Amino acid sequence: MQLNKTQKKWLAETFGSEVRFDEPMSRHTSLGVGGPADVYIAPKEKSGLMDLVRWLQENSLSYFIVGNGTNLLVLDKGIRGIVISMKHCLKDIQHTTLDRKNILVTAGAAARLNSLCKYATGNSFSGMNFALGIPGSVGGAIIMNAGTVQGNMADVITAVVALSSNGEPVRIEKHALPFRYRGLDLKEHKKIAGMQTPILLEGEFRLSPGDRHAIEKEASAIMQKRAAKQPLHQRSAGCFFKNPTKGKSAGELIDLAGLKGKRVGDAQVSTIHANFIINKSNATATDILALKDLIQKAVLRSFNITLEPEVKIVGT
Known about the structure:
By secondary structure, the protein is α+β, with helices and mostly antiparallel strands.
């Protein structure tokens, strides 16, 4: 997609330092790889985001939404079109007490998921500890129905607020949210039909009052276990593959296939957790894709199971 001079001028004049042209996506992904986006915009205010979306709709321009750049692999030639980053707006977290057993916590889509977990812990709310250590934003976690063996986002969410096709916010209750394993498909929802890509503004979560000491103790145990079993301090996109619907996990299958430590260029299967592909130094998206293909072929050959990526792969 090529923007004309008038469109580029409008973006530059409207968003100033919030917009960059030909911006390397390697600067904005947890894997540290990815070619340039034609346009990269990080609005600082919700109003600016909504104005931008209306303008994009009116001009029939393509766009792609990113939060904190986790769970994302951008290819080496980059992204054609406009990338909208939510990382500078929609970060507020607040709560309302509904009754003695129920707390409603509202979090902006760009708030870090770990910030939401810490907010819950700090206020003695139980229900969010399952998400501790999962990278990324609240919005991304909702779209991916992020979770662990202890639970997932669909377990605690009560509603989301998204942008409609006319650029106005609409509330969607849980019963109308088509969650699935590691996914949520909003494209067919009648309130946002016509939106090229659904844009979440916030999520609402029902939690419960609890004992702060017990919640903190549980949180500490979860994080210690995660630190021992996951490469939390290395560049990755989190778990790379979805777990099969039954049987062994993706990590177990990759490990049994003898692929821990396997490298293609600077992309490596983690020696700590086999379902993490890490960037050792200067990996490219091509390295990571080649390693992905190698893993899929090895697991298919050994176990007759096709692993499906959990990480979103975008770009050209």
